[in-house]
Amino acid sequence: MFNFILLLAGFVRSLARWHRPAWATVLAAALLLPCLVMAQAPASGDPTGGLASGKGQAEHRYLLAQAYWTDVGGKTSFAQAREQSYTPYEGLLNRGYTDAVHWLRLTVAASETPLGLFISPPWLDEITLYDPATDTPPITAGDRYPASQSAFHSLGHSFKLPPSPAARDVWLRLQSTSTHIVNLEVMAVDDIPRSITGNILWAAVYATLLLLIFLVLLVIWWLQRDRILSAYLVRHAVFTYYVFAFLGLPALLLSAWLPPAFFDKFFSLSATVLMTLGLRFDIELLSSYKPNRHLLRLIEAIPWIGVGLVIMLLAGYERQALQMNVYILMVTTLLLMLTALSCKPDPGVERLMSKQALLAYYTIIMGGLLVSLIALVGWIQPRPWTLQILIFNGMVSALVMTGLLFIRSQRRARDAQRKNWELTKAQEDLELEHRRRQEQSQFLHMLMHELKTPLSIVSLALGTKGNREQNLNHAGRAVQDMKAILERCIQADRSGELMLNRRVEQIDLDGIIRNLGETIPGLQKRLQFAPQAATHLQTDRQLLRIVLGNLLHNAAAYGDPVAPVTVSLRSARYEHRDGTRICIGNIPGLAGWPDQQQLFSKYYRSPGAQRESGSGLGLYLARQLASSLGGWLRYCPTDTEVRFELWLPQTPA
Fold it and tell me: What are phi and psi of 133, to 5 degrees?
C-alpha cells in the first residue's frame, strides 16, 4: 500500500507539470478509451472475461445459441412464449430498465453428464427455468428467493440441467426491477467446483482490499479528524456494502439468518444512498477549491433528489427509483468534471492537494463511471467485463483518493504544526513586546520621579538671590545627580552591546578601586581596602569599572554615613578555574536592608532609598556585566553588614 501511494504521488507530480490544454486530452481519453476497448473486446460467457476462472471458451461447447423475446405485458404463459419469434444475440443480454418480462431461449449442446447453468449478476430478482426435456416443474431463483433455490452454492444464481443425448432448447423467464443485464454460463459438472472456487476467491480478495482501504482511512481519520476525510470515509463504507451486495456475498454468507427480501431491498438502497451520501464528500472537497458557485449549487441540490429516490424506492416504485438514480448519476459525473475544471483554489489549498491532481481524479474516475452507466441503461452493447467496471472503478477511486487524502492529511498536519509554531512565536513576541512596554513605562516613571528632585533643587538655587555660591554648589550637585542617573540608564541600555565588544587587558584592581574611592562622593574617607591576594587579572577594564563603581556607589550612598565601606580581595577557585573574589560591605543606613527577592531586578529601589537620587539599575547592570565577564555577583549579607561578593576569573574563558 505504501509503495502504491509513493507511485501515485509521483504520478500526481508528473500531472502537475502539464499545461491546461492537456486536460482536454485527458478528458477525451477518459471518455473514449473505454468505449474503444469495449468495442474491440471479444465476447465471452464469463463476466470477468475468462480471467477469473481460467475457462474462457469451455462453456461455449454447451451453450450453442441465445435469443430473447420481450413480453411487454408480462402475462404470457410458457406455452405461448415458446411459440414467439426470438431475436438472436451474443455475449450479454442488455435491455436496460424496464417493467417488461424477457424470455430467453438457450440452445444447449448434447451432454452425457449433467450441466450447470450459471446466471449473473446476482441482483436479478426472479429467474424461472423451463426445461421441456424434463418432467420437473419450473424452477425459480433470484435475489428475492432463498439461496437454496439455486442448484449450486455459489455467487449469483444457478440451475442444474440433466444430461441429454441431443441438443435441446431451454427457456428462462426474467423479471427484475434492476437493469435487465444477463450473463449466462453453461459448463460440465466437473468444471463447476473450479469455477465456483475461482469466482469466490476473486470476490473475497476484492472485498478484503476494500476493507483494508476502509481501515487505512479510519486510522488516518482518527489521527487527523479532517472533515473531508470523514465524508469520504462514510462514502467508502456505503460503497463497500454496495460492492459486497453486487458480488452476492451477503446472500451467500448470511442467507441462513436473514430473509432474501432483506438482501434485495438493501442492495437497492445502497445503490441509491451511495449517490446521496457520496456527494457529501465531493461537495466538501470541491467547495474548498472555490469552483463556479452555480455548478456547486447544482451539485448541492442533487442529494435532495437522492432523498426523494429513497422515498420512491421504499414506497414500492423500485424500478423507477433505480432507473432515475442511474440517469441522475450520469448527469452528476458530468457536473463534477465541469465543476473541477472551474476551480480557482487559493495557494494554501493547492499546497494540500493541487488542482491538477483534483482534475486527474475527476476526469479519469468519473469518465470510466460514465461509460459504465451508459451501458447499464442499454444505450451501448456491453461486453462481459462491463459489469465489473462499476466496482473496479470504485476500487481505483478508493485507492487513488486514499493516496491523495493521505498526502493531503500529511501536508495539512505539517501546515498545522507550522501555524502552531507561528502562533506560539507571535504570542511570545506579543508577550515580549508587552514586557518591553511595561519596562518603558516603568523606566519613564522612574526617570520622571528621580529627575524631579534635582530639577527642583536647580530651580530653587537659581531663583534664590542670597548665598549665591552655596546655591550654585547645590545646583552643581543636582546636575551631577541627573548626569549619573542618565549615565546609568545609558549603560543599562548598552549592556548587550558591551557584552559583545569586550576588550581584554591586564587590569590592576588596586588602582581601579582606589581611583573609584576618590571620585565617588562621600567614599574616600570611609573606604577601607585590604587586598589579600594578587590584584592583577585579565578582563575588560570599562566593564569592570562599571561593576565596581555601581557596588561602591550603592555602599557609599545607602550605607551608614559615618561607618566604613570595606573592600577585600582574595584568591578563590570556582568550577576548577582560578579567580579573584571581591567583597564589598557596609553597615545599613537610613535606606535599611534591601529585599533579597527583588534586589537585582530592574528599577528596584527599597522604600528607604527613595530619599536619594538613583535609577534602580545599578545592581541589575552590575550582575549582567559580571556574568558577561565570566564571573558572578551575589548578595551575601552578614548579621551586621549589607555585603556583595563578586568573583571574576583570572583569565577570560
Answer: -75, -10
How far is it, in rounded angstroms, from Cα 9 to Cα 400?
10
Q: Tell me if 624 sits within 8 A of 495, measured CB to CB.
A: yes
Q: Is pLDDT larger for residue 228 or for residue 330?
A: 330
Question: How much is the mean pLDDT over the chain?
Answer: 79
The pLDDT assigned to 453 comes to 52
Interatomic CA distance for residues 213 and 208, integer angstroms:
9
Query: d(Cα 535, Cα 87) in Å, to the nearest integer?
Result: 122
Of residues 21 and 163, the one with the higher pLDDT is 163
How much is the pTM?
A: 0.57
Q: What is the pLDDT of residue 81?
A: 94
With the CA atoms of 201, 207, 213 and 216 taken in that order, what torsion angle do they form, in degrees rounded to the nearest 10? Answer: -90
pLDDT score recorded for residue 446 = 52
Burial class (CB in 10 A: 0-12, 13-18, 19+), 138: exposed
Which amino acid, one-letter code, is at 561? P
By residue count, the chain amounts to 653
Query: Contact 633/470 with Cβ under 8 angstroms?
Result: no
Q: Would you list the DSSP string of 441-496?
A: HHHHHHHHHHHHHHHHHHHHHHH--S-HHHHHHHHHHHHHHHHHHHHHHHHHHTHH
Q: State how far Cα 287 lies from the chain centre.
A: 17
- More confident position, 133 or 107: 107
Q: Record the cell numbers describing residue 119, joined without a space.
A: 446466471
Q: Map residue 185 onto helix, strand or coil.
A: strand
At 115, give phi and psi (nearest 5°).
Answer: -120, 155
Q: Strands 63-71 and 115-120: what pairing?
A: unpaired
Cα 485 from Cα 88, distance rounded (Å)? 112
Q: Classify burial at 486, counting beta carbons within 10 Å of its beta carbon; exposed 0-12, middle 13-18, buried 19 or more.
A: middle
φ/ψ of residue 147, rounded to 5: -65, -20
| Most confident among 269-273, 351-355, 359-363 (mean pLDDT) | 269-273
Q: At what angle do helices 618-628 and 541-558 cross, to 10 degrees?
A: 150
Report the C-alpha gap between 251 and 207 in whole angstroms: 14
Distance between CA atoms of 526 and 516, rounded to whole angstroms?
12
DSSP designation for 599: T
- Cell numbers given for 75: 402475462
Instruction: For residue 559, give the 3-state DSSP assignment.
Output: strand
Q: Check residues 218 and 11 and name the one with the higher pLDDT.
A: 218
For residues 45 and 384, give the distance between their C-alpha atoms in angstroms, rounded to a whole number. 7
Per DSSP, the chain holds a count of helices (H) and strands (E) of: 17, 17
Mean pLDDT across the stretch 615-643? 84
- 154 against 617, higher pLDDT: 154
C-alpha span between 646 and 547 (Å, rounded): 9
CA dihedral 364, 366, 367, 368 (to 10 degrees): 90
Q: What is the SS3 assignment for 529?
A: strand
Distance, CA of 236 to CA of 274 (rounded, Å) = 9
